[in-house]
Design brief:
heterodimer, A: little secondary structure, B: alpha/beta, 6-stranded mixed β-sheet, 5 helices, globular
């Protein structure tokens, strides 16, 4: 367990990744994966604490149970991704695309979702305490049983299930 | 480069320790509280804390400064002559800090507080409470809010898009993400 909440070492080697790669349970904390193509990747239970995934292609990736605490996923494409029960505390989802993503049971405490697109996403039972969905799109999203209070200022909540 | 991010108890403010792997010198950015984790991190990486940089003087960012100074006797930089009883080296817009092998540039981003400053290194910025992922620091007046937005546009949004922004609360971000998606900028 690192002493700091996130530890970034610039001398760490870059990780070679590609679509569909199997990284189940891997320790990838603070990995530099900005704009990487991880479409359909298997990242179940991976430790991606503080990882840089801004602009990454994670369409259809399986991140169920993964730890993404403090990860940067701004402008990433997570369309159809599975994030059930993932640790998404303090994640940066600003401008990210999470259309039809499964975030059921995920922990989104203190996460940032401004202008993200959650159309059709499932957040059933997710902890959204102090999450900020300012101007996010949640058309048709399932927010049934979510825990805690979030900020939905100017968000599109058309046809949301609560 | 070695960079540790610490979430502190006062209002979950971030503090950062930037370490140089060559000189083994370290800089602490903000000190909302003193935590033994700072010392553990320094020891784990063989670093000596020589410098502290303060982004602004709210207690959740400077509450632990006296204890840090007492324990490590670092040179403290801020935009005021004294912070929480600790004498500092005063910085103003355009000043530079030489730390280890890097040179950091100071920009003033008043708004959240009048004395807010950011420290820009090549490739990354410590922005304090001026800019957050998808948000900006709270301000007391519309004039202060406008001043803050203008300063961010002029001094931060002109940086390369891939520049990492390490903020005072919450996750880090990049200039490109904030330029395109931060709701406070249209």
């Amino acid at each position: 367990m690192p002493i700091a909440d996130v530890e970034r070492i610039s001398s760490s080697p870059d990780i070679k990744v590609g679509p569909g790669i199997d990284l189940r349970g891997q320790y990838l904390a603070a990995a530099r994966l900005s704009f990487a193509n991880l479409e359909g990747a298997d990242l179940r239970n991976a430790d991606l604490t503080g990882a840089l995934l801004n602009g990454a292609n994670l369409r259809g990736a399986d991140l169920s149970g993964a730890c993404l605490h403090l990860a940067v996923l701004g402008a990433a494409d997570l369309t159809g991704a599975k994030l059930a029960n993932a640790d998404l505390r303090r994640v940066n989802f600003v401008g990210a695309k999470l259309v039809n993503a499964d975030l059921s049971g995920a922990k989104l405490y203190f996460s940032r979702e401004a202008k993200a697109d959650f159309s059709g996403a499932c957040l059933r039972g997710a902890d959204i305490t102090r999450a900020i969905f300012r101007r996010a799109i949640l058309r048709g999203a399932d927010l049934t049983g979510t825990i805690g209070e979030a900020n939905f200022e100017n968000a599109d909540l058309t046809d949301v299930q609560r | 480069m070695i960079l540790g991010q610490f979430i502190l108890k006062p209002l979950e403010a971030n503090a950062f320790i930037l370490g140089c792997p060559d000189t083994r010198k370290a800089m602490l950015v903000d000190a909302g509280e003193y935590t033994p984790r700072f010392d553990d991190f320094l020891e784990a990486h063989g670093l000596t804390l020589t410098t502290v940089f303060i982004t602004h003087t709210h207690d959740d960012h400077v509450g632990g400064l006296p204890e840090v100074v007492q324990r490590h006797n670092p040179r403290v930089y801020a935009s005021l002559d004294e912070v929480n009883g600790c004498p500092t080296h005063r910085l103003a817009h355009g000043n530079t800090i030489r730390f280890a092998k890097w040179e950091g540039r100071i920009v003033e981003t008043p708004g959240h507080l009048p004395e807010c400053i950011c420290l820009i290194f090549p490739g990354f910025v410590f922005a304090g409470d001026a800019l957050f992922a998808g948000s900006v620091g709270g301000t007391k007046t519309t004039e202060a809010a406008a001043q803050q937005i203008a300063a961010i546009r002029e001094h931060l949004f002109t940086l390369p898009g891939e520049t990492l922004v390490h903020v005072g609360h919450g996750p880090s971000t990049t200039i490109a993400i904030e330029r395109e998606f931060n709701p406070f900028f249209g």
